[in-house]
Every structure is written in structure tokens, then in C-alpha cells.
Specification:
273 residues; mainly alpha; single chain; 15 helices
Length: 273
């Protein structure tokens, strides 16, 4: 009986946590179906019938299609670079013995504690000197040195990788590049897929860097376009909630496609073998 009660309490807590997580998304979608005057009146629980009108108002104010293309270009490119080079760096830290290895790892850990916003002035001056302002390069290229990805993949390799496998590959004639592409990337797939989800969400929602480094409206990403809808004393909340609801569709699709890897990536280190 005590065991059943304990399981019931666990399921109840999980249900409440699920409701707390899902409820904001539900309210966001519901708000996208109501006109602005009803949104200013108070909280709406049931869906309305103004989604089409809100959608028309949204596309009349911002080029959401162009924003999606820009955001996908930045997010996809940054995610791929972070996953590839982050895994390569993690493999180097994990496999090779060299001087100052602990110092490099310590610097990596410290860099995760420093907010990226603190270096935006230096980044802006650097990009101005290299004539890279108003381009996607200063937004995409820093993803090569994604400390969070490096740390996560390093921990993943440390708990799952066996040196005997790599030694066997070397005996068979594989060089280090072949080992990385033929063994490390496939074996680290759960950890990489987990970081792909987290990084894509982060880069897709990135507002600060594009706001500072981009000036041309045709290059604006979705977060900047939605922020530009704030102009005016009376905001069109219906159109804005519609833009927000549409903007999370790529994230939901990506999560549904890679969600099974999250549990595998988090639990892979539970048992080494």
C-alpha cells in the first residue's frame, strides 16, 4: 500500500509539472486566436475565431517568411558548427595527453560562467574592423567555440568511450581523422543529438547578437521582427501572439524528431559498457 501511495504521489507531481510546462504554450496559442481588444480585457482560456485576421495583420506588418529563412540559416549553420567542432574539441581533450590540459579544461569551465553579453563591445569593434557588420558571419562563427557543447560531449565520451576501441582502430590502420569520423561521431550520436536540440533552440531564439550586429531589415531574424511589432502606443497583441505561436513550430518539429535522444544522451553515462 505504501508503495502504491508513493507511486501515486510521483505521478501526481509529474502531472502537475506537465500542466505547468504546457499551460503557457496553451495560453499563447489561445491568445493567437483572439482579437487585440479581447486580449487587453483579460485572460482567455478558450480559443477564439480571429486567428486568420491576426495572421493577416501579422504578415502585413512583418515579412515572417523572410524572417523564418534568416533564422533557420543562422540557427542551422550555428548548430551544425557547434556540434561538429564541439565534438572534435571534446574528443581532443578526452583522448590526448598534453601539457596544460587541466588549464585548458579550467578555462573552458570558466568561460561557461561568463555571460556572452559582456564581450559584445569587443565583438562589435572586431566585426567593424573586419567589415563583417550587417552579416551573419559574426553570429554564426562564434558557435565553433561553444563551451557548453564541448563540456557536455566531453562528459559523454568520458562515461561511454573505451580506449581499447580506439587502439583497435589504430592497429587496423585508421588515422586520427578517420577515427573521429568513423567512430567518435557515430558513438557520440545521442549526446550530439541532445546538444543539437538545446543549441538550435538557443540560436533560434537569439535576440541580443542579431540586434547589435544586423542593420538591414531583410536580414532580420524572427525575434527581431517580433520586437519591431512593439512600435505604437496600442500594440496589436493578436498579431504578435500569432507570430510567437508560429515561431515555435520549427522548435517543436525538431524536438519531436530528436526527443528520443535526450533520454539516451542524459542516461548514457549511467552504465558504462
Amino acid at each position: 500500500m505504501k508503495k502504491k501511495i508513493g507511486h501515486g504521489m510521483i505521478y501526481l507531481i509529474l502531472f502537475l509539472l506537465t500542466v505547468l510546462c504546457v499551460f503557457p504554450f496553451y495560453i499563447m496559442i489561445v491568445n493567437a486566436t483572439h482579437p487585440t481588444n479581447e486580449l487587453y480585457a483579460g485572460l482567455n482560456i478558450l480559443p477564439g475565431g480571429s486567428f486568420i485576421d491576426n495572421f493577416r495583420n501579422m504578415i502585413s506588418r512583418i515579412n515572417i517568411g523572410r524572417g523564418f529563412l534568416n533564422s533557420f540559416t543562422v540557427a542551422a549553420s550555428s548548430t551544425v558548427l557547434a556540434a561538429y567542432f564541439g565534438t572534435m574539441t571534446a574528443f581532443g581533450l578526452f583522448e590526448y595527453k598534453f601539457k596544460m590540459k587541466k588549464a585548458v579544461y579550467a578555462i573552458l569551465m570558466l568561460s561557461m560562467m561568463v555571460p556572452g553579453q559582456l564581450g559584445i563591445i569587443g565583438l562589435f569593434r572586431l566585426c567593424r574592423g573586419l567589415k563583417m557588420l550587417d552579416t551573419y558571419w559574426p553570429i554564426i562563427l562564434p558557435s565553433i567555440a561553444n563551451a557548453g557543447t564541448i563540456f557536455f560531449i566531453y562528459q559523454f565520451l568520458e562515461t561511454t568511450m573505451d580506449d581499447a576501441l580506439l587502439d583497435s582502430a589504430r592497429i587496423d590502420g585508421c588515422n586520427e581523422v578517420q577515427i573521429f569520423h568513423r567512430f567518435i561521431l557515430p558513438l557520440a550520436k545521442p549526446g550530439i543529438a541532445t546538444m543539437v536540440i538545446f543549441n538550435f533552440v538557443s540560436y533560434w531564439n537569439n535576440f541580443f547578437s542579431p540586434m547589435i550586429l544586423l542593420f538591414s531589415e531583410e536580414k532580420f531574424t524572427v525575434p527581431i521582427l517580433m520586437n519591431n511589432m512593439n512600435s505604437g502606443m496600442l500594440q496589436d497583441l493578436g498579431a504578435k501572439y500569432t507570430a510567437i505561436a508560429i515561431s515555435i513550430i520549427p522548435i517543436i518539429i525538431l524536438y519531436c524528431f530528436f526527443s528520443k535522444f535526450i533520454t539516451e544522451g542524459m542516461m548514457a553515462g549511467a552504465v558504462k559498457g
